[in-house]
Design goal:
It comes from Pendulispora albinea. InterPro entries: OGT, TPR-like_helical_dom_sf, TPR_rpt. This protein is mainly alpha-helical. It has a domain of 291 residues: Serine Threonine Protein Phosphatase 5, Tetratricopeptide repeat (Alpha Horseshoe), CATH 1.25.40. It is 58% helix and 1% strand. It starts with 15 loop residues before the first strand and ends with a helix.
Length: 420
């Protein structure tokens, strides 16, 4: 994703470019895996503190394939991609739907189908060994290639899960297990082209292998064959976003939520794309639902808190970010986002403390170094340290335009200081 534009220059001595760590990467559980989150757009206005918005808050992670977290993988939205309906505000939600696409009809008495369904259930609860056993038994019991196709899909799922790779775009490029799984899935599709689960799983594998056109083609076929499965829409939406088709991903993730309104990860995924599209209020509605569905999930609170900062609702935003940290104190991005909130309110000492904590947890987090520099640059006594922090950020990513802009402003500030 392209970097977010800078906020306007502040009428302050040091018009620093801050950065919130991208809110929510799209949720892995809702699409069978996890992928890194893109940076969210920065707030478009300056709050008068003299500092442009810091890097955006961390977003929920979405990804294509891999073992599902039994507690995740369930989501909802309006088919039109609009704001959540009044029903979304209700205190209760339907149970989330499974994220494992079924390989057989649910009420079948056929022995092969029963083995496949047992494999699906085991995979859904994360018991990969049991899933492999059931899928292998189904393959052995099948008499014809077409009948064995679903079992090949299941075995490919297992192979991908055992590869233990991020399910990001290109994350499995050159990996032998991903290549073997892709080959098995192609065989399954060739034997049974009308098997929607095979098309979806092949699309996920191709995405990991870095073949975007083929992945999207297969995933679109999967959606056409499984129009009422939230997971097919979620997988396509994640792939579209990962390959730069953000506007096309919106209706797919919206449909996933509409079909599965009780899924916290799907709510988070949809909220993230809404936020990236600048529809902050709609995003907040989805994140609020996500928190109701997963109150113990630190990411859900971070997502909501980060989105609230875009609305300048610092009271609620800080509360949600503090809740996220209380649930997961070791995540550096949570501390960076809380520091951003403090800095936007003029609580510079508190902001510096959070940035330092973030760096202690992850010294490769460029946004923490940048934001620390913007806070330190306010005081002439700590401007040397501010410059050192910006150099740290430049060493992490020499192409980050925020580093160049802040260094230029720091040069100008120090030049003016010498003239006095």
């Amino acid at each position: 994703m392209p970097r977010a534009p800078f906020a306007p220059r502040a009428p302050f001595a040091f018009a620093a470019r801050l950065a919130l760590v991208a809110p929510l990467a799209l949720s892995a559980a809702a699409c069978g895996g996890a992928a890194p989150a893109p940076e969210s757009p920065q707030p478009a206005q300056n709050n008068g503190s003299g500092i442009a918005a810091p890097a955006t808050p961390e977003a929920g992670a979405m990804g294509p394939s891999g073992p599902r977290d039994p507690s995740a993988g369930k989501n909802p939205v309006s088919a039109s991609g609009g704001a959540a309906s009044s029903a979304d505000a209700a205190p209760s939600f339907p149970p989330p739907r499974p994220t494992t696409l079924p390989l057989a009809p649910p009420n079948s008495d056929d022995p092969v189908d029963r083995l496949l369904l047992e494999g699906d259930l085991a995979f859904e609860r994360g018991d990969i060994a049991a899933a492999a056993k059931q899928y292998e038994a189904a393959r052995a019991a099948a008499k014809a290639p077409k009948r064995a196709a679903p079992a090949l899909v299941g075995l490919a799922r297992v192979r991908i899960a055992r590869a233990n790779l991020p399910t990001d775009f290109g994350a499995g490029k050159g990996n032998k297990e991903i290549a073997a799984a892709t080959k098995e899935l192609r065989r399954a599709v060739q034997s049974e082209p009308g098997l929607g689960a095979a098309q979806v799983e092949l699309g996920r594998a191709l995405l990991m292998a870095g073949d975007a056109p083929a992945a999207l083609e297969s995933l679109r076929r999967g959606v056409a064959l499984l129009p009422n499965e939230p997971e097919s829409h979620s997988a396509l939406g994640v792939a579209l976003l990962a390959t730069g088709h953000r506007s096309e991903s919106l209706p797919e993730l919206a449909r996933a939520v509409e079909l599965d309104p009780g899924s916290a990860p799907r709510r988070g995924n949809y909220g993230t794309v809404l936020l990236m599209a600048g529809r902050v209020k709609d995003a907040i509605q989805q994140y609020e639902a996500q928190v109701k569905l997963a109150d113990g999930d630190a990411r859900a609170h971070s997502d909501l808190g980060s989105a609230l900062l875009f609305e300048n609702d610092f009271t609620r935003g800080v509360a949600e970010l503090k809740k996220a940290i209380s649930l997961d104190p070791q995540r550096a991005t949570f501390h960076t986002n809380l520091g951003y909130a403090y800095q936007q309110q003029g609580q510079v000492a508190e902001a510096i403390a959070e940035y330092r904590q973030a760096i202690q947890l992850d010294d490769k987090l460029a946004s923490a170094w940048i934001n620390l520099a913007t806070a330190l640059a306010r005081d002439p006594k700590t401007r040397a340290e501010a410059r050192a922090a910006l150099e740290k950020a430049r060493a992490i990513d020499s192409t980050d335009p925020r580093v160049k802009a802040n260094l230029e402003e720091l040069d100008a500030l120090e030049k003016d200081q010498k003239k006095r």
